[in-house]
Every structure is written in C-alpha cells, then in structure tokens.
Amino acid sequence: MEQARPRDLWQRLQQISRYWIYLLLAAVVLWQLLFPMRLPIVPSRPTEDLYAAIKAVPDSKIVIVAADWDASTQAETGPQTAAVMNACFQLKKKFAILTLSAPPGNKLANDIAQATAKQYDAHYGVDWCNWGYKYGG
User: How large is the average pLDDT for residues 43-66?
Assistant: First the structure.
C-alpha cells in the first residue's frame, strides 16, 4: 500500500525530519552569535518626559521613588526603578524610596539603590535615603 502524498504546505512541513529543523535552528542561533544584529535604542516620548521631569526638580527638593511592587513583578518594575535611580544619580538629584502598599518592594528597591549608588559613588543619607514601608496606603 502506497503512502498518500501530502497535499498542502502544512502537511509537507509536518513531514520534515526533526534533524533538519534542529540543524536550521542551531544555524540561526550560531549566526546571531557570530554576527549580532545591531538595532538602535531610541527612547520613547514618555521616557524622555520622565527624564525631563526628574531634571526639572529643583536641587533643594527630592524625588520620591515609589516602590509599591514585590517580587512577583520584579522582572518588570525592577529595571524601571533602576532607570529612575540612574537618572537621579546622573542628574545629581537626591531621592527617597517610599513604599505604601507592598512591604517587600522596600527591600528590593533598596538593593537596587545600593547597587546603583556604587556606580556613581553616591552615599546613603547624603544622595539618597529609604523612608521604608508606611502602613495605610
């Protein structure tokens, strides 16, 4: 009994050996490792507006960095918090970390601030501080 020939593209793709698929996948990954694609990093308008807002803060005032997040959203909000802290250190703006809703966010943001402060030779209590968790939202 003869096997029926696949009629459409999807049936043909189903019959490709896994060996060839994995070989193609490995070649694509290797190509990108050897010849990485360089893409420009263009900040969005809201990013530029946030940077301008931090820059506009008078030197006699401080920036309050809200750390109302916890470990479940750290992958998203951790880098955002680090970016705000980087901008503050870069622009020589003093800031305070404040947490109103998620107590773990205070510790996580404090760790980010300590790591970021080392890059700018900033000191706790002089360039930044941590007001901790304030109950009551």
Answer: 95
Domain ranges across the chain: 45-133
10 Å CB burial of residue 14 (0-12, 13-18, 19+) is: exposed
Sign, CA dihedral 51-56-58-61, equals negative
Mean pLDDT of 103-117: 94
What does the alpha-carbon distance between residue 12 and residue 67 come to, in Å, rounded to a whole number?
53
Predicted pLDDT of residue 130 = 95
Confidence of residue 108 (pLDDT cuts 50, 70, 90): very high
pLDDT at 48: 96
Phi then psi for residue 14, to 5 deg, are: -65, -25
